[in-house]
Each structure stands twice: as C-alpha cells, then as structure tokens.
Amino acid sequence: MGVEDRSADAPLPFGNWLPRRYRSFMQQGLVLLTLVLLVVFFSLMRPTFIGWGNISSLLLASVVTGVQALGLSFVIATGGIDLTPGLGMAATSVFAGVLIAQTGFGLPIWVGIVGGVAAGALIGLGNGVLIARFKMQPMIATLAMMMVCWGAALVIAGGRTVSLRSVAGYDSIAMGQLIPGVYNAVLILIVLALIAGVVMNKTAVGRYALAIGSNKEATRISGVNIVRWEVLAYVICGIFTGISGILMSSRLSAAQPTLGQGYEMYAIAAAVIGGTSLRGGRASIFGAVIGAITIQTIFNGLTVMGVQDQWQKVLLGTVLIIAVLVDIQRRGGKEE
Q1: pTM
Q2: Is the dihedral of CA 287, 185, 71, 1 positive or negative?
Q3: N or C of the chain: less Cβ packing under 10 Å?
Q4: Which helix (H) or strand (E) holds 243?
Q5: Could you give the CA distance from residue 97 to residue 153 in angstroms, rounded to a whole number?
C-alpha cells in the first residue's frame, strides 16, 4: 500500500465528494497550486523574480531543505520527529571535509562522500536505538543527539572552518552543471526524490513506517518487528542528513561546524506543508520537495520585495500553523 492509499483514509473536508483514490492527488495539487500562485504573485510584484538567474538560485537554495525533508518524511510517517538534520549536517560535512582535506593522506573525494553519508547513518542509528529500543521520547532523544552533533563538529574541526577549496572537483558536486543552467545539486534532489518515492511507496520500509504511524499497537500485534523498522526510518533520515552535509559543503567549498542551526525546522515545515502528518500515518515525498521549494519561494520573493528577514520568518510560521490546522481538519479535528 502506498502513500496515496493511506492518506486517503483521512477525509478531506474540501474533497469528500471525490473517490478515495483521487483525494491524495487533490491534496498534492493544492500544494502545487499554492506554489504556482506564489510565483505569479511575486512575479507581478517584482518582474525580476521570474528571471532564470533568480529561479536557478531559488532552486539551489531549496536543495538542502528538500533533501532533509525527504529523510524526515520517513521518521514523521512513523509518528516520530528528528531534530538532528540541521547540526547533523554540520557534523557530517565536517567529518567528510577532514577526511579529504586534512588527513594528509590524499584521500579521494568519494571517501569523503561515503564517510559523510555513513556518519549521517550512524547518527540516525543512534536516534533510532534510543527511541525504538530504549523508548526515549523522540523530541528528547533527538535534541540530545543534536547537541552531540554540534559538539562533535566543533571537536573534529578544531573549532575552525574546514576549507575545501583545494579539493579539486568537490565544488562541482553541487555547483557543477551537467545540464547548462541547472545546478547539479538540483538534479541530485530530483534523483533522491525519485528514490525516496520508490522506497516509501513500493517497499516494506515505507509500508511499515506508515503502518506504525497509523496504529503502532495494531502493527505490533500483527507480528511486525516495530523496533527494526522504526530504527531503519531514523537511519534513512540520517543518510539524507549526511547527503545534505555533502551538498552544503560542496556549495560553500567549506565545512562549517556552526552551520545548520534551524535547518531542521525548515525541513520539518517543508514536510508538513507538503502534506506529511505530524501524527504519523501519512507522508508525501512529492509534497516534501514542493514544500521546500515553497518555503524558499517565500523567502526569496519577500527578499526581492525588500521585506525584512524577521517578517519573513513570521510569515513562514503562519504558513506552518495553517498547514498543521489543515492536517487537523483532515483528520476530522481529532487529536490522536
């Protein structure tokens, strides 16, 4: 059973007249429509917004949030939460950077990439074990792990930024252009979204993640190993965190141990705006990507219009509140 089937279990107040199999498509269509309306609005207000240079930069800025939102979709689908992607990104990028730039052994780029992704998976494994095996509250466990990541990044980097400008080809991972005018980071996000979509909709990982979020006790009684699949959801989130670290450090040609604070909030917001329920049981990979682009569209458009940064955050918070209220209504107004 895919995401579409499970999301249809909850009635949409604005789409009950639709056949169940079409309700999820309507939900995704509304998210996409919102993005289109934002683009039209900002284009009318500032014609320079629609220029390809600005759109290309907007998409590039959406990548890290989008990648993290993809990973978080698996965790949130189980009814959990993960606060580590932001500073976990800093820790994994610093670890990868040290491997290829400061070891003195001339390790190739692929070693740094594998090392960074593996470090992310390890962070996810730690979160998963604490939450699924030792029954720690997800907010507390991942908050603690976030602080561990922050400290580890500072220790590994010696409190300094790790420069990657001397590593030939590393910046091309994100900033290269296999397709002229389109950054590689955007192409990577598209590929990762396709992979995540297959995993969420066509494999046992996604099926059991959604089942755990829908009704954990019933899933356990049916004979599913809850611990195994819940841990795996956090490991997947950690892998995407590691990838976001590689992409960010490639984009900046540096690994900064203090970079990443607050990024997890944007990623959670992207997932929720895209249709993933904070109470589990429903997730949308397509929506997570559109949510990330929507967030960056708001920031970019308001910046082009000269709106101050603090008001941008106020508006984003308002949008997130509306998304959560819509989720509550979609579930019949009941807290679960």
Answers
A1: 0.91
A2: positive
A3: N
A4: helix 226-252
A5: 11
Q: Kindly state the average pLDDT of the residues 130-152.
A: 97
Overall average pLDDT of the 273-296 stretch: 93
Structure tokens at 49: 């917004």
Look at residues 204, 84, 199 and name the one whose alpha carbon lies nearest to residue 148: 84
Report the alpha-carbon distance of residue 205 to residue 213 in Å, rounded. Answer: 12
Looking at domain 3-330, which CATH architecture does it have? Answer: Orthogonal Bundle (1.10)
Surface-to-core class of residue 324, CB atoms within 10 Å of its CB (0-12 exposed, 13-18 middle, 19+ buried) = middle
Instruction: Tell which residue, 237, 191, 234, 199, has the closest CA to residue 71.
Output: 237
Mean pLDDT of the chain: 89
**Could you tell me where the beta strands, DSSP code E, fall in 59-207?**
162-163
For residue 123, the SS3 value is helix
Of residues 126, 132, 163, 128, the one with CA closest to residue 148: 126
| Contact yes or no for 99/115 (Cβ under 8 A) | yes
- For 149, the token pair is 């990541």
The structure tokens listed for 77 are 């689908």
Q: How far apart are CA 11 and CA 330, in angstroms?
A: 6
Q: Identify the DSSP state of 12.
A: P
Of how many residues is the chain composed? 336
Token digits of residue 218: 């019933």
Domain ranges of the chain: 3-330
